[in-house]
Amino acid sequence: MPKITVEKFLKLNENRNNFLKVKCLTDSIGLTNEINSSEVNRPGMALFGYFKDFVFERIQIFGKGEGNYVLTLAEENKLDIFEELFKYKMPICIFTYNLIPPESFLEIAKKNNVCVIISELKTADMVRNIENLTEEEFAESFTAHGVFVEVFGVGILILGKSGVGKSEATLELISKGHRLISDDTVEFKKLNDGRIIGRKNEFIKHNMEVRGIGVVDISRLSGMSAIRDRKRLDLVIELESWNDDEQYDRMGLEEKTYNILETEIPYLKIPVRAGRNICILIETAAKNLRLKEMGYNSAKELNKNLITQIGKKKSDNLI
């Protein structure tokens, strides 16, 4: 099961310009605690001493009701409830509506190595934003070996054996204004809505290995407009060396797919040989996919017209 630390959770928030509108009250306490789900829990019953169904391993959200009750418990000096609550290894506590928990609550949280933060957001907004922020982190993942690029807004995974020309085709695509997401290895995640999202490799980033030249940093070589960090996967293209004995699809009537994370992605196999401009072929494939998504299939339209013409000629011959 995927997990992230509280530190990574807060970093994701920082990367989104404090998307959760939070402020940490416990400094560096509990940053190594692990979160294993984008689902949250509101510990209302636990504050009353009922822990049987307490889902303590989730992010704990203290809304207006829970937050005000925590203040009441502190005022009545019922700190034993806090002590009992923090026996459970909660990863993090979040108070919404900018409710500040009492000092006694914070001291016990620190003693038990639990991070406490406050947010100006409403509770419902906080729950929704946490799911939005962490969905990719907890999604099912798959790592592919290839190059992931964006061509005319289409996310394309380029596969092929070493030396077939993936890097050369990618460099030409970038020189024509298209963008690199990741080279060599690409991590794909399946989101709740079924989309497959590919992300840059955090170690390799936007570097590419080009034989004869070495490693080049595309972000510095071609500028920030030549890269992006993530993109939906729309098309898989496999490059292979031309084989005269193989019959290649000339019409495109058969629509093949490539299975990634139990999702069928449109798939093309493009043969490579001297004289074929792979960059133009990839661009054409991207445009053609967009046409299909808009309801126009060139191959099927041509085939339909041919059948109509053949039928018309047969009718004319019978007259």
UniProtKB/TrEMBL annotation:
The UniProt record lists the keyword Cell membrane: no
Cofactor: Mg(2+)
Region annotation (Important for the catalytic mechanism of both phosphorylation and dephosphorylation) ranges: 208-217
EC number: 2.7.11.-, 2.7.4.-
Chain residues that bind ATP: 160-167
Residues at which Mg(2+) binds: 167, 209
Active site: 145, 166, 184 (proton acceptor), 250
Reaction catalysed by this enzyme: [HPr protein]-O-phospho-L-serine + phosphate + H(+) = [HPr protein]-L-serine + diphosphate; [HPr protein]-L-serine + ATP = [HPr protein]-O-phospho-L-serine + ADP + H(+)
Domain HPr(Ser) kinase/phosphorylase N-terminal: 18-132
InterPro entries: HPr(Ser)_kin/Pase, Hpr_kin/Pase_C, Hpr_kin/Pase_Hpr_N, P-loop_NTPase, Ser_kin/Pase_Hpr-like_N_sf
General remark: Both phosphorylation and phosphorolysis are carried out by the same active site and suggest a common mechanism for both reactions.
Domain notes from UniProt: The Walker A ATP-binding motif also binds Pi and PPi.
HAMAP family in UniProt: HPr_kinase
Official protein name in the record: HPr kinase/phosphorylase
Species of origin: Brachyspira catarrhinii
Gene encoding the protein: hprK
